Structure formats: structure tokens, C-alpha cells
């Protein structure tokens, strides 16, 4: 109905009666008549169905002519009516335009319809209602499901909306046109994505029928050959359409018309959008998957071209040029932001981005207009996110020539720097992009170090080393705000980069919360190495690791190369030698020439100076270098340009002469048949003259320029006394005048910041605009050169890339964070710096980078102000936050801190001191529990704490000090510190050793104060010992090797409070440990209890030694059943106590020893076998203490009792596994471990003690021989008698021994009778073993001057012969008789028997 109503409204319009509308009126009348007839016909055949029959559906295509003429009329009302009807007909599917156009059969009717819709717009003066209606109609066409517009028609629709946006004066129409454009683009690219997805599904489905697919492909190829004469663009569309099965775009016609071209577009007004598909050969050679993809490509290319149009330097914000560029860039940005998988994976769009978009961005990316610059940056960020794998060279150009150059420029504006920083921040949030930048550029031998340069620039910005240029010309307050904002942005970028590294290496990090409680005795002591190794076990991981290693090798090689290039710039020969020694270049002249020719980073001025040197080897290199150039068939000036582009001519005339001479020779060699030059001398002179001409014509210092006639005159007679053709010289002059020969400058020198800052804002802008223009030219040239180049891009996958990345970044990051913390009190800056410290320490910890980790931890520790005692009064909120940050790092990264634990724990130790000062609590050193009780702040207590800690401060500053340190005593800080110690049970085996080592080192520092030692860390050592008690023995032994040594020192401290606490803590730990028991053959109890022995030995305090004895006594009484190897330490301590003079110590130690011997030895003798010798030594020491004779007698009795235990348990001695069991045969163990120690110690008692004790010991010794001698073997008897004969050794000492006479009368006499008595009792065993030694001992006694001893020896010999003589053999009798003879001879009074009186004395004196 609205079709008829629209025609009727047009006929009823008053303007229809005008003469120029006669054709329109007639067309409307004819159409109305036909339409009424068709409606009447349909009504006759109408059915009763509610739903109309398909045959009743009226196609509006044949009624299009009235509306076309209406659109061409000048009446706004008629045009609006026509456009409104067309929009509705298209929207409801009545107007589809699939039939061929009857005017031009080469195209479809829809193309004509779109042209008719666009025709009413003629510029800014078009009626606003008409503009709005055009927009609505075009949108209906593009988004309609029933009609299709492609190629030129689609571009026409988009262009018209674009022009309406630019030309319309109505804000509503502008907004509508912009929204319509966005919707059109979304529709076009959305259709392409859906088609691509459908093709993917279809291809997967069709794979089931391979034969059909092959047949279709063959048919397609045959058809392509058949239509080969067609244009490339038409062929590509047809192929794409056939692939879809939609070659025909008409309704039901069997013969499909040829695809539409955009040639019609060239006849239209080329206003804004590029409107031809044939003006660039690229699209003609591209193969599109579908017509939809080609539509999207054409739109994308048109927008790219539109964005490259020029804009005035200071455009009006409402100008068409600026708004056009901004809109095109916004549309491109929208396309990239919503890019689907088809767009991202299509080679067509990758080419378009490289050839069109990147070239456009090279210009817009350096625009001085902030809006253009901002959108360009946003587009680059999108490209970086979605297309970086295809744009390796382009990304390098953007970073190197634009972004980083703007950041480094001293004249760039704050707005531009700020927008660059915002773009970089988005890039820095993506870990993949950051690692890819490093891998693809910093590890590429020929690429720039983008990552390294980026980090350095961000660090400088974060430190405000460019602060003088930011906001030039603004007020001071405004400048400070800008500096702060820029500084924060730089810090945020650095922190984001570090967070990306942390994220990239997260698989290596093991959180303490994820770590099992290693203090649980479950036998699982897996260290971090196991988890790391386990994560990389697959072959894919191994391959990635190998790749990461290769990139690291490339990076190292690149660093060496850059170092050599920098050295070459200063000292060329040394630089070459440096590179040759490392194998990067060869040693021959050809190798060096090749290096000069291919290495772009070399300083061209230095290369020219080196090549011109007169040294023989330099000349050889120069000849090889020039010989690499091919001048064949080239003009002389062109060859000279090529020659001088490779390097910069030196300033010395002789060097220039050598170079030009070789050039002339090479040119003539390459062009022998030129016939122009008589010899190389001519080329040489001409080259010189060209260089002089270039300087003369283009140097601003030369005012009087050389004329052409002067130049020709100057070159007369240079061709072997002949002239070169005048026209030839004239052409040379014209070429040089129009195109200067530019020589290369140094390229490897670091650009220096301009020392003279712009004095005015205007001058700064001028300088910046010049820089932007230079950047744009350079970027455009590089971008165009790279547009047809495909360079492989590596997508990083391995975590090992982070290690070399952090090696590059850690120094600049540390500088930035340190400066930020030190120079600013702003909370946001401090928070960012602390986040950076946390991330950097996490990375250094994960990769075990000791130097970097220590640097960051030590810097963070300094910023707590805890290590500098005098700076406590300056503590601020940022320092409190630093303390909390350090504590958090200790808790989260404890497994990786290693030696850095020392710095952390030093701060925590000083934190406790700060808490004491802040709360005014005096440390209760008299309390051995180590607990502190909080009280009201007491200035005297605070003063005491500070004085005892070596801090000197004016008392007037105490209130301020308390306020600044009060936060250190907050509950959150206290809980966080406690969590470190409580969480130590989750540290792995290596980490807990480092943790304990640092604890002991800090505790030693605390205890080293002779007047006021602190025990804070000593208390914490006790705590963590309890927390980690459940660890496996292997880990505990490593821990206790450190802890035990520290307890030794603490227990021997001169301060009794410290020693008391250490000993008591040892008691508690030992009791707890003994409760766990010890399996046979383990020796850990001995290690654990050794500190008691050391303290008992070294500490001279009587009270501490008493405490040690009390602790040992307590442990023995409560844990005797669990003692195994610890008995050795118990007896060692009692052995030391036995030598004391203090009655309490000796009696307490002996009482416990007595209990052990009488109770434990009796019931569990097997558990003390390892310590049996120590027990006997201990009893021997008790027996030898002359101050306590009763204890001495009891000790000997206990030794006698031990002999009974040995005799009753011989098998246990044999079966027991001793520490050195392999060195002692089983048959000898009871002797070595049991009998011999008893006999030896008894002999020692005899030799050391006074008469009553040694007599008792002698008696017990021989009682044991008589009682248990039957168990002794012959060789045991031999050793035993040697021990017994030691009793007589005292007689061999010097005569000064006062007790010698008494010894002979008592002990020796007693011993002789006892020995003979034992010999007689066990004669059969001892006769062959010890009789000769016994006879020798008796003979020695007879020889002594002591008559009693000699008589006793004779009596013993007599008793021996009487008691055992009947058993003597003939040989033994012979030996006995010989002994008698020897005794008789040595005792015979020879002097008396041969005495004679002396002769008479005749001396006068005698008389």
C-alpha cells in the first residue's frame, strides 16, 4: 500500500505541475495505472487464506523509474517522499534489485538504485531532511538481507554517508551519518566473518566426500582457463563466487550477468573516498575468497588512503580535511578493534595493512595534531595486539623512528609524550607482546634493541630526567602536576613490564601457600629443584628450552657485536681486532670489506676515514671494498652517488685522494667500452670537480655560486689534454644543481639531548615540528620499503626468555624505583615503586640471579631506614610501607631469597628495636622467657633502649620519634612478621638452611653488644626450631649444623641472661626432639645434644654449668627410654662435671650417672653400647676427683658393676652396629668395646689417684681378672698384662717424685702379688703368652733399690715356682733357672766380697 501511496503523494505534490517535472508526472501516472491493474488482478485471484500467496507478492523493481526521476528532481518534498518509499521497499524486501539494469545490462538494478539514492546529495546546501533520508535509505540498502551491494556501489554508499557527515551543517545529521558509517562497516566485515565461518564448516563437512571436492576443483580450474582473457579482478571475483556456489547474484535467471565493476565510480566526483579498484594493481593480483571479502578489502583500502590526505599545520577543528582524516582513522580503529578470525588470518588484509595502513600511520603517527596522533597510536596498539606476527619490520620502525624518538626528544610536547606513554602502557600490559619484542628485536643481530631502549626511556621518565622539557612555558604548579603524572605513568609502565615477566615465568614460581608443610614428618622433603625439573620433562618443553638458549646466544653475540662497533667508532683497529678475536668477522681484507658493506650500524664517517688511511692493510681493505661495487652501465654521476652513499668522505685531502683514485679506476674497469674517458685520470679529475661543484652549489657558506660556464671552463683539458663534451658537462651541472649528492653521516652515535633547551614555547614548537617532519620522512621511506617484505616473526613460548630480559632491565628499573622512593613522598609513586621492587625481586629469585636479587633487597632494606639507626627519626609513611613490602616479600618469596635473608632479617631485628622505642618498653632481659609486656610510653625506657642500641638523640625529639615509629607496632606489622617465622616450616630444604644461617648471623650481631645484648633473634631461632621440628632428618641435620654452632656461642656468652636463655632453650628443644626417639644406627641425637657439651666445656660461669647439669638430668629422667646416640653427650657432659670442684655440680652429675649405670644399663644395655666407653671414662674421672673421696669409691664400684654387664651381655657387643664396626672384627668387639676400656681406666685411676683410691681400683681390677678371666682370649691377656705392668711405670719417672717410696711399698708390692696370683690361676692360658714378660717385670723389680719391692719380687717368683712348677716344661725350667742366675748375679754383693783396705796415706796433711 505504501508503494501506491508514495506515488500518489508525489502526484499530489504541487511542484509536480511544473514543466521540468513532466517526465516524472507521466512516469508516476503510468506506474500508478499498472500498479492498480496488478492489484485488481491479484484481488480477483485472492484466496481466503489469511497469509497472502507468494504469487500475490508485488515486486517493486519494475516501478523504480518514478522514484529515480523523483530523486533527480529539485523539490525536497518529492525527494523525501521518494527516498522514504525506497527505504521502506528495501527494508521490507519488495525492492531487491537483483535483475539486470535495462539501461546498462552490464550491471544490476541495485547499482542504479543506490546511484539514485545518492544523487540528491549535492553538497552542504542539500536540504537537511533529504540528507537524513539519504542516510536512512543507504543504511537500509547495506544491511538488507534481500538486496546485495558490492564493490563500487558499496563504496558509493559509504562515500555518500561520509560526505554528508563532512558537509552537513546539522549536528543530528552528522551524528546519524557517523553512526550509519559505523553500522555499514560492521555489516560488511560481519558478513565477511560469517561467510568465512560458514566456509570453514562447509569445508569440514565436505571432507567426507573427497572425490566430489577434487572434481569441483578440476571444474574450477578448467573454467578459469576458459575465461583467462578476462580481467584479473573479474576473474578473482568469479572464482570466489564459484567457490561459494553463488556465482549468480540474480534472482532466478539461469544466465548470470558479469560481476559489477567500479569503472562507473571514476566518472563521479572524487571527493573523499578513493573510488577505484583498478587504479592500483594490488587488488587485481589478489585472490579473494568471496565477493564479501573483496568488499571489505576495498573499504579498508579506501579508508587507509583517505587517512593519508594532507592536513594544514594549524587546521580549523571544523575543517573538512581534519574531520575527514579523524573519521577515517576512527573507522579504521573500529575495524581493527572488532576484527574477527577471517580478517586476522587473511593474507589479503595483511597485505593491505602493510601497504596502506602502516604507510598511513607513518605519517599520522607523527602528526602535530593531538587527535590524529592519539587515534594513530590506538591503531598501532591494535596492530601490535592482533597483527604483530605479520609486521615485524613495521613495528620496529614505529618504535625506533616514532615512539621512542618522541620520548627521547627534548622539544616534544607533553601531550605527545603523554599519549605515547598511554599507548606504551597498553602494550606493557600484554606479556606476550613484551617478550615477543625482546625476542624479535633485541635478539636479532640486525634489528634495533627495542626492549632495551624502551626500558631505558621509561626509566628516565620515571626519574624525571626529562622534567625540564615537560610543560615548558606553563606555570610552576601546572608543570609539577605534569611531571608527577608523567612520572607515575613511567613507573606504571615499568611495573607492568616486570609484572609481565612475572606472569611469563609463573610456572617456575612455587608459592609458600602451595608448598606442603615440610615440618610434618611425612618423609616428603622435595626441594624446589624437583618441581622445576618436573615441569620441563616433555619433549616440547625441551625444544622450547633449546630455542630460548639459541636466542640468548644470539643476544650475547649481538652485545659483543655492538660493543665492537662502539669500540670501532673510537678506535677502528682495536674494534676490528676485538670482533676478529671473537670470531664475528674474518681476518682477510675481503672479510673486513664485506663487514663494512653489510653492517649498517657502523659510523660511516669512521669507515671513510679508515678506508682512506695510507696503511698498506687499510688500502688493501679499501680496494676490496670498492671492488665490491658494480658500476657497469651506470652514468658517472649515478656511480659517484652510489660510491659516496656507502660512507662519508674523510676530511683529509690525502685520504680523499686515495678514495677517489680507486673510484675512478673501478669505474673505468666496469665500463671499458665507454669511450668517453681517455684514461682513469679523467674520471679521477671529473669526480673531484663534481664534489667541488656539490659543495659550491649547496653549501650555505658559499655566497658566489659557480655558474655553468665556469664549471665547463674549469674542466677543460682534463681528458688527456682534450675536452669532455660540453653538453656532457652541462648535464652534470644541471643534475648536481637539482639533486645534491648527500653523504652519509655517522649512524651509530647515540643521539644527544640538546643542551640548549628551547627558551620559548614558540621556538620549542618550531623545533618539534621540524623533528616530526624528519620522523615522518624517515618512517615513510622505511615503511614503504618494508611494505612488500615478509620477515619471519617468532612467537615466544619459553620462560627462559625472562632471564636475559631482566638482565637488561634490572639496572634501569632499580634506578627508577630507588629515585622514586627517595625523592617523593607521594603515596601513589611510593606504591608503584614498591610494586616494582616486589616484581623485580620475584623475577631475580625465580631465576636465581644472586647479584640482581641482592641489589634490590639491599636497596629496599635501606629505604626502610631501619638499618641506619640515626635515620629512625625521619621515618615516614612510605618507609612504613617499605617495611611491610619487605615483610611480604620474605613471606611470599622465602624459598628463593637465599643469602638475601640476611638483609631481610636485619631489618626485622631493627624493626623490633623500633617497636620498643615506639612503645617505650624496656626489654625484659631478666626474664628468661623472652616475653615483652606492652605498657604506656615511657620516655626513660625509650631513652634506655636507644642508649643501649647506640642511638643518640635529643630528648626533645622523643615525642616526634614515638609518633613516627608508632605505626611499626601496629597489629598488621606484628602479625606479618610472625607469619614469616611461622611459615618457615613451608620453606624447602635449601631455603630453610639459608634462612637459619641468616637468623644466626643477625642473632650474633644482636648478642655482640657486650653491655646490652639483645635476644630477639635468639628467641625466634627457638621458635622456628619448634616449627621445623618435624622435618626429615636430612634437612634437620643441615639446619642443626648451623643452629647448634649458634647455640654454642650463645651458651658461652659472657652475659649470663643470654647463656641462661640459650641453655634453657636447648633443653626445651632437646626434650621435644628426644620425644621423637631415634632408630638404631642413627646418630642425630649426638649432634643435637653436642651444644651442652661445648657450653659445659667453655662457659666458666658456675651458674650456667649447674644449669647444664640440671638440664641433662631433667632430660635423662624424663626421656631415658628415648636416648640412643645422645648418651655419648650425656657422659661427655658428666665427664666435664666430674672434674669440677663445686660440690653441687659433681654430686648432681654423679647422682644421675649412678642412676644411668644402675638402672638403664641394667634394663636397656643395648641402647648404651655406643656410649659404653664414654661411660667408663666418665666414671674414671669421678674416681680421680680428689675432692670427693666417697664419690671416687662409688665410681670404682660402678666400674666393677659395668664389668658385670659386659660379662652378662657378650652377644650384644658382637651384634651391635657401631659407627666404625667395619674396622673391628666381631670376635674382638667385646674386648675393644667392653673389657679393655674398663681395665684401661682402672689402670688410669691407679696411676692418678691417692693410695686409698688406687688401692681400691687395683683390687677391683684384679678381681675382675680373676672373676671373668675365663672369658678372655690369649691375645686379650697379653694386652691386659701390658696394662697391668703400666702400674710400675711410675717407678721409671725422675727421682723428684715424692710418692715413689710409698708407691713401691704399697701399690707395686700389691700389684706383684696380684699379678702372680692371676697368673697362677690361669697358668694354662697365660704360660705361653705372658710368662716371658712376667719374668722380665720380676727381674726389673728385683733390681730396684727398694728392698721391700725386691723381696716381694723374690717372694712372688718363689710362689710362682711352687704353685706352678710341676707344670713347667723342660724349656720353661731352663728359662726359670736362667732367671734365678740373673737375679743371683745382680743381687750378689761383689764389692763386699772383694773388699781390701786402702794403702797407707803418706801425705803431710794426713800425718
Furnish the topology, listing elements before pairings.
Layout: H1 2-12, H2 22-44, H3 64-72, H4 76-91, H5 109-118, H6 128-143, H7 151-167, H8 171-206, H9 210-226, H10 232-244, H11 281-285, H12 291-307, H13 320-337, H14 341-345, H15 347-364, H16 370-386, H17 392-408, H18 414-428, H19 431-442, H20 450-462, H21 476-504, H22 528-535, H23 539-570, H24 572-581, H25 589-598, H26 604-611, H27 616-627, H28 636-645, H29 653-670, H30 680-698, H31 708-714, H32 726-738, H33 761-786, H34 802-823, H35 827-846, H36 850-863, H37 877-892, H38 901-919, H39 939-948, H40 958-965, H41 971-982, H42 989-1007, H43 1016-1027, H44 1033-1051, H45 1056-1074, H46 1084-1098, H47 1102-1119, H48 1127-1138, H49 1143-1163, H50 1172-1183, H51 1189-1208, H52 1210-1215, H53 1226-1248, H54 1251-1268, H55 1274-1285, H56 1300-1321, H57 1323-1342, H58 1347-1364, H59 1370-1387, H60 1390-1393
Summarize the structure in short.
It contains 60 helices and no strands. The chain has 1407 residues and is an all-alpha fold. Helix 50 runs parallel beside helix 53.
